[in-house]
Amino acid sequence: QVQLVESGGGLVQPGGSLRLSCVPSGSIFRILTMGWYRQAPGKQRELVAITSGGSTRYADSVQGRFTISRDNAKDTVLLQMNSLRPEDTAVYYCYVHAGLGDGMNYWGKGTLVTVSS
Fold first, then answer.
1. CA dihedral 45, 101, 74, 77 (to 10 degrees)
2. What's the pLDDT tens digit per position in 46-87?
């Protein structure tokens, strides 16, 4: 079973930057969508950013501050996070949708991002 391995989380001061990375542990057939979700304490998991077929979509709360990018050759997805705010504190999860028909969804185990002074 292929797993998604996230890295890059940590503690950062408000206004700072972090870059998250997600790499599959093996080959995934026909990746269609790659993205990032997050879950803050006591809240539901929410979409942060997603890329599919060359297009991208962001949550309103991160638009203009976060940038998602994908390295197709390495099946890697990155999330550059700038101007971080305390409300960005959450566990960030990598997501991949791939395959034929209904396809399969893959999730990483999550990486914690804490924005605090």
1. -20
2. 999 999 988 999 999 999 999 999 988 888 999 999 999 999
